[in-house]
Amino acid sequence: MIYAVLDTNVIVSAILTPKSPPGRIMKAWEDRLFQLCLSKTLFSEIKQVLSRPWLAKKYHILPEQREQLLWRLRRFSHFVSNLPKLKPVIKEDPADDVILATAVAARAEVIVSGDERLQKLKEYRRISIVSPKDFLEIIKRL
């Protein structure tokens, strides 16, 4: 099974637009086509973003929907701790380094992100960095 780290933007996009590539990725995760890897730091960021009142209002996200997703993430994701301290990689947004550190700690094979700064790297320590569309192509071949 492929181990993947999904950037916060992918998970949030999935709940906002379920039929989009990120939404289809989350469906593939629910169907256990890949193992989602998270760290406490990354989970906290997802929770924080999904808890923004303006987001819930604009996209009609009910608290129950948010809590159900967070519960599934806690229950069915592979959580890693002891993230390695990395030299800054994404200088424009050091918070993105958490995604890289989570992937290294999880020994993930792929990072999925809509973030162009991460995608420009293409690879980090032999971990592929791909767009949501490209990841869908990868899991189609499994």
Could you walk me through the main structural features you see in this protein, from its secondary elements to its overall organization?
This protein is α/β, with parallel strands linked by helices and 142 residues long. It has a single domain (3-140), classed as Rossmann fold (3-Layer(aba) Sandwich), CATH 3.40.50. 54% of the residues lie in helices and 15% in strands. The chain is built from 8 helices and 6 strands, in the order βααβαααβαβαββα. It has helices at residues 8-16, 21-30, 40-50, 53-59, 63-76, 97-106, 116-121, 132-140; strands at 3-6, 35-39, 78-80, 110-112, 123-124, 127-130. It has a 6-stranded mixed sheet, sandwiched between helices. Strand 5 (123-124) and strand 6 form a beta hairpin. The longest helix is centred in the middle third of the chain and has 14 residues, at 63-76. It is globular. The mean pLDDT is 94.
